[in-house]
Amino acid sequence: MSDVTSNERRRAEVNAFVRATFGVRGTLRLHRFAFGFDLLRAPANVLLAPVFLVIQLSALIARTIRCHKASIWLSQRQIFLETNVSQQVAKRVMAFIRDLETRGNMRACSKEIVEHEIANYTGVRSAVSEITTTLVVIIVGIIAFQTVTLGVISITGQVAELRAHAHAIANFPLGQGLGRLYYGVFSTDLKPWELVATGVVLSMLASVVTTFAGVIADPLQVITGTHRRRLCRLINRLEVASDRNNTIAQEHITARLADLTDVALNLWRSLRG
Fold first, then answer.
1. Residue 229 to residues 39, 68, 161, 251: CA-CA distances in angstroms?
2. Closest Cα partner for 137 from 81, 191, 199?
3. Residues contacting residue 2 through CB under 8 Å, at least 6 positions apart
4. Model's pTM, two decimal places?
5. What per-residue confidence (pLDDT) applies to 1?
6. Phi/psi zone of residue 244: left (φ > 0), alpha (ψ -120 to 50 degrees), beta?
7. What is the mean pLDDT of residues 30-38?
8. Rounded Cα–Cα distance for residues 56 and 53 (Å)
């Protein structure tokens, strides 16, 4: 009976922590720390994400073939740049875990294992921000171009063509009315530098969306219980952890699948001409 009461009390504390930290007010307080260098760290982390996935896969393979030292060494590699928001999340989760330990609501773990698990926890949250950005790009593509755009690569060509078309009509010698008729029949010339410039601008905008995606994603994950379940899994792993957890979170795989699909679709379209 005491174990049931303890679990219920801990579940209530997890719910309260999640609501306070990731609810609307909580996430807005967290994202005050995003202004500044996080606007540079977030896009850098997006670029580093494939490297992280490869290293985690390598650690998993090493563990499977019983190369435990190599697996632990690989899993210890810190690939992502720590953002101010992630640092704040890590601090609050660490304080929450230590408070549970102090009051006897969970088994005490070494600082090294707790830090490793919390780093994985914040990494998953960053992956969710990337997924949120992908969903925003998809929604923009459907509304603006009536097509599914899985990433910046897909939407870049569409936006660049739209911009070139509007510019050509605006500068048509016989006026914009005839320009619309003319360019309704004939295509506009899209220079390579215009495509590159559009891609750079859209990537910068996407990095801003990724930096602040948690403002939308966090409260939604509170409502759906995702944050609660993720924190409970973290606590459960710490309760039984005799070694580091080397499994790859589904969120990292989902974020990378969207990128790979985006690249594959655009390569296929290029090959088809």
1. 29, 29, 44, 14
2. 199
3. none
4. 0.73
5. 41
6. beta
7. 88
8. 5
Q: Which residues contact 14 (CB under 8 A, 6 or more apart)?
A: 228, 231, 232, 235
For residues 20 and 22, what is the distance between their CA atoms, to the nearest angstrom?
Answer: 6
Structure-token pair, residue 165? 């078309």
Write the DSSP symbol of residue 79. -
DSSP state of 249: P
SS3 28: helix
* Distance (Å, whole) CA 272 – CA 82: 41
Torsion-angle region of 225 (φ positive above 0: left; ψ -120 to 50: alpha; else: beta): left
126 Cβ partners below 8 Å, 6+ apart? 45, 80, 83, 86
Q: Which two tokens stand for residue 16?
A: 């309260």
- The CA–CA distances, whole Å, from 197 to 10, 157, 162, 230 equal 52, 11, 14, 39
Task: Give the whole-angstrom CA distance, residue 127 versus residue 45.
Answer: 10
Tokens of 159: 């936006």
Could you tell me the end-to-end alpha-carbon distance of the chain, in angstroms, rounded to an integer? 69
Tally the residues of the chain.
273
Pair of tokens at residue 204 = 């910068």
51 falls in which pLDDT band (50, 70, 90)? confident
Rounded Cα gap, residues 32 and 16, in angstroms: 21
Q: Which residue type sits at 175? A: G
How far apart CA 174 and CA 166 sit, in angstroms, is 15
